[in-house]
Inverse folding.
């Protein structure tokens, strides 16, 4: 039985969400920055960690400058 990459506890078949090639608990598949719950396949990944597409991923890792990446009002410190 695989372990969840976030909490390291076993993931049972009934509660599993598969994303980024790993099995997660549904409550553990969250954005690393804002902690928003994510659905498998509808998020971005950076260094094996999940991020919501907007605004977190585009603000942290997208192109910089005003009007780029669709998240110009969100400025996060890395």
């Amino acid at each position: 039985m695989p372990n969840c990459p976030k909490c390291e506890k076993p993931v049972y078949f009934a509660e599993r969400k598969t994303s980024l090639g790993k099995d997660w608990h549904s409550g553990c598949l969250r954005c690393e920055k804002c902690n928003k719950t994510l659905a498998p396949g509808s998020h971005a990944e950076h260094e094996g960690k999940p991020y919501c597409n907007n605004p977190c991923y585009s603000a942290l890792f997208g192109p910089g400058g005003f009007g780029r990446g669709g998240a110009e009002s969100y400025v996060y410190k890395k």
